[in-house]
Amino acid sequence: MPSIGIVAPQSMHFAPPLSLQSGATIADYTLVYETYGTLNAARSNAVLVCHALNASHHVAGTYVDASGKSDPKTLGWWDNMVGPGKPLDTDRFFVIGVNNLGSCFGSTGPMHVDAATGKPYGAGFPVVTVEDWVEAQARLADALGIAQFAAVMGGSLGGMQAMAWSMLYPDRLRHCIVVASTPKLSAQNIAFNDVARQAILTDPEYHGGDFYAHGVVPKNGLRVARMVGHITYLSDHDMAQKFGRDLRSGDYQFSYGVDFEIESYLRYQGDKFSEYFDANTYLLITKALDYFDPARAFAGDLTRAMASTRAQFLVVSFCTDWRFAPARSREIVQALVNNRRRVTYAEIDAPHGHDAFLLEDARYMKTMRAYYEHVWAELGADPAHSAHSVHPAPAVQTDLEARAA
Amino acid sequence: MPSIGIVAPQSMHFAPPLSLQSGATIADYTLVYETYGTLNAARSNAVLVCHALNASHHVAGTYVDASGKSDPKTLGWWDNMVGPGKPLDTDRFFVIGVNNLGSCFGSTGPMHVDAATGKPYGAGFPVVTVEDWVEAQARLADALGIAQFAAVMGGSLGGMQAMAWSMLYPDRLRHCIVVASTPKLSAQNIAFNDVARQAILTDPEYHGGDFYAHGVVPKNGLRVARMVGHITYLSDHDMAQKFGRDLRSGDYQFSYGVDFEIESYLRYQGDKFSEYFDANTYLLITKALDYFDPARAFAGDLTRAMASTRAQFLVVSFCTDWRFAPARSREIVQALVNNRRRVTYAEIDAPHGHDAFLLEDARYMKTMRAYYEHVWAELGADPAHSAHSVHPAPAVQTDLEARAA
To answer: Which residue from A119, A124, B140, B244 has the fewest beta carbons nearer than 10 Å?
Structure first.
């Protein structure tokens, strides 16, 4: 299926200060975003796609190279999901990808100059939360004239943003699509994030976050951070299938170079990442992950936390995802069922672990396509349709209930 | 139950060169070891306890402090298992703990001077394997006049040594006790080890392994290595129970200091480790783990690899151990059953993950005690008993068979 083709990022500046959950304020900021498809007259067909840790606003399509031709190496991170004829069909929907505050891909972040000091923010960039991102995104939606999204959608950390939208702005989305996500990180999830952060923070080239001024980058720390992260994105089984104990050179080297293919692969991933990702952004985003816990304000009760939601939900998890396992998604589904919200839950038996949400899988794509057909049919049937009202009908039976039965 | 009390290490020098699997040779070496209990006249009651990654010959008892009194902080790493009246009862058995070659706890290792250069071995210490360790241990057994052990026993990497003994010297052990181990590391296991190694190797204070000469230690690398390792030793569930999302100061700090108790715990473990463990030893031992794969010489067929064994086996795994999961132990059991060897298999429902093999658990301790009763009864019934002959009787039905049935 063809990609949407050549796309280009846009940006928007926001002058009013943004108050953050930490109590800090960002005086003004810029968000970089991309849009695909056409906003309809009713402004009812917009879908916001939220990105995860190392992704960006560049969801679909390609950029042009120096000679003005499409550069296939620049394909968007969810191009298999978003485009003409794809599950999220840009012939029907107006899709927005937005780069989050604190990122290193264009929106205001640690690499940018803090007007207050005249120097890059560095580690001084305020720690932002998932909810802060949603506030910033809501202003973009305001500016684009979108009062209500047909859907807000995301995988992993992106799914957290979709969840936060459903709780903070219940009337601004009709559907909430949460893929491979969790209502909060476990101790083990936090532990892995902290190992990554410690690798960066203790790299001498980090210079307390001020490495830009020193003309260096804490590559070693970033590299280790990415390596440990990457292990948690893949399933044990998939790693065994792809790499097993395959040796690079056919025999043990009895040295500390590369013996196993898996070492070569991980080091390559780490090297690549350390060349394009900003260390302060990495710290920042892992903190946003750690802090996300909407039930926290409700004494840990996710059902109460999600009582404010009005959207219909699609929740998707992957059997081999041990980072955010299906049990974590089932907590979300259970809280929604407890609130008598409409929720569809799919647990996909894909082998690729957490990364499955980014990959081709026939059952996964079919599920997403079917759900967007539903979103579209609803729009077509009643363009003025609103999901503001609580659905008094019993929730659709979910896999969770079927299992419990 | 009381500890065996005050103990003291001994050491033995071995002048004949040791040929290693890598093709390298160690000209001469010293092994540090401890013994508990008394070797009987028949020299038939000796049990060798093999250690894992960060342990040593100091299995049980305490050392004296400066004032000559028992120092409780120096309690041996398996004191709950080994001692008078303990599962491995030192009133019955003569127990030997031996520090492996390449360690940083006394036996010849990277911190020692290489006579050939007059400088510390550093990263130049040859990469040793589990099988090399067994060869070195066999020489110690020779020197102590022990032709055959009542049992060779170990957990994790120690279990690999016990397995290697059973294959390399089938006539030199009557029982082989393999706890929380695996016949080979998975790609994921290797990946975690390589992250740890990369953290050390890329620490500028590592100086290519020559950090002794620089008067520094690659603490940051060791610290991250230990943190990532430690996560794999604990179960997700146990971490959730012990730490969950508990906050150190009651609220989010919005900084990169400590927010969660799990961060504080892991950083503390990392700090402590980096103060006593040698970086070159860490590299070396993780390589020994990665390389262990007895089936490799038999086209991956573990049954053929274990056909040389003559010992009776006890294999123990822990349900929540995701580092070396029960499925890995069942591979060992299956290979033994295929060879019609006597094997007892216990899968313990303990919550503590891989670390469970070092911890108190009533069912685990009962299993170990019962097995050593069996070892002891056999010794008493027939001191001249030998397990050299193949057991033609059907193997004891194992849990594995029961599950398969």
So the answer is: A119
B21 by Cβ neighbours in 10 Å (0-12 / 13-18 / 19+) ranks as: middle
Catalytic residue among B3, B103, B156, B274: B156
B269 CB within 8 Å of a chain A CB: no
The size of chain A, in residues, is 405
Q: Determine contact, residues B229/B247, Cβ cutoff 8 Å.
A: no
DSSP B247: B
Amino acid (one-letter) located at B159: G
Number of inter-chain CB pairs under 8 A, A vs B: 146
> CB distance from A283 to chain B under 8 Å?
yes
Tell whether A201 lies on the interface with B, counting CB pairs under 8 A.
yes
B27 three-class SS: coil
ipTM of the complex: 0.92
pLDDT tens digits, B235-264? 999 999 999 999 999 999 999 999 999 999
Are the C-beta atoms of residues B343 and B205 closer than 8 Å to each other?
Answer: no
Q: Cα(B65)–Cα(A21) distance, rounded to whole angstroms?
A: 52
Residues of A in contact with B327 (CB under 8 A): none
Are B199 and A201 in contact (CB < 8 Å)? Answer: no
- The pTM for the full model equals 0.93
Q: Which residue do the tokens 């360790």 mark?
A: B133
The 10s digit of each residue's pLDDT in B74-118 is 999 999 999 999 999 999 999 999 999 999 999 999 999 999 999
Q: Residues A120-126: contacts with CB within 8 Å, 24+ apart?
A: A120/A212, A120/A213, A121/A280, A122/A208, A122/A209, A122/A210, A122/A211, A122/A212, A122/A280, A123/A208, A123/A209, A123/A210, A123/A280, A123/A283, A123/B256, A124/A209, A125/A280, A125/A284, A126/A20, A126/A22, A126/A24, A126/A25, A126/A26, A126/B254
Cβ contact A195–B220 (<8 Å): no
With CA atoms as reference, the chain B residue closest to A233 would be B188
DSSP string for residues in A85-125:
TSSEETTT-EEEEEPPTT-SSSSS-TTSEETTTTEE-GGGS
Does A144 reach chain B within 8 Å, measured CB to CB? no
Contact B256 A197 (CB under 8 A): yes
Check if B229 contacts A (Cβ < 8 Å). Answer: no
Residue in the structure block whose two tokens are 């959730």: B240
Q: How far apart are CA A353 and CA B12, in angstroms?
A: 50
Please tell me whether residue B199 adopts helix, strand or coil conformation: helix
